[in-house]
Design goal:
Shape: elongated
Number of strands: 0
Order of helices and strands: HHHHHHHHH
Largest sheet: none
């Protein structure tokens, strides 16, 4: 009879994200993740097959995390634009140091070079753009956005603003990340709002 799993895959993948932020994908090891979560590397090998398998599992979970974060932001807000801002800011609230973003950018190399990682990156991107478009359409319907706004274009631009702000802040460290991102989102959205 197999022993029950005391540590869930989600807990392991949470630990993987933490180690990725600290070390980046190149320096991440099964031993480092195992030490963080209290499992031996062979146990991680049994569950995920390899370091690559662990990283792919982490990437595959990313779009679901976006959808969960959007749902949590919706539960905290009544305004669609406030929900969009809340989602963006709560997504980065855990990031304290520029190096964490720099290490995360190492994952982009995998997204560009490896078709399996790229498929997960595209799904992650789609989750952000689709969620943004849905919230922006709701904001337009609620009268928060002007009626002539191109929702699909603004949703893509929101993604560009979000990712661009993360990269710029990783290099410059201008203020706190949440303050910097909030300012960029406000600059992006202000020409389109009815306020």
């Amino acid at each position: 009879m197999a022993r029950p799993r005391l540590i869930s895959d989600d807990a392991i993948l949470d630990a993987t994200r933490q180690v990725l932020a600290e070390l980046g994908p190149t320096k991440l090891t099964l031993a480092a993740v195992g030490a963080r979560i209290g499992l031996a590397p062979p146990t991680l090998m049994q569950r995920f097959g390899s370091k690559r398998g662990l990283l792919l599992a982490s990437a595959a979970r990313s779009p679901l995390m976006v959808l969960r974060a959007v749902a949590e932001a919706e539960a905290r807000n009544t305004s669609p634009l406030a929900t969009l801002r809340d989602f963006a800011l709560s997504s980065v609230a855990h990031i304290q140091h520029r190096e964490e973003l720099g290490n995360g950018l190492g994952f982009v190399q995998l997204d560009v070079a490896d078709p399996e990682f790229r498929a997960h990156a595209l799904a992650h991107t789609a989750a952000i753009v689709d969620s943004s478009a849905r919230l922006l359409a709701a904001a337009q319907e609620a009268g928060e956005l002007k009626p002539d706004v191109d929702i699909a274009a603004l949703a893509r631009l929101t993604l560009v603003c979000f990712n661009g702000a993360l990269q710029v802040w990783a290099v410059t460290g201008w203020g706190s990340l949440t303050d910097f991102l909030r300012a960029q989102l406000d600059l992006l959205l202000s020409p389109y709002t009815t306020e």
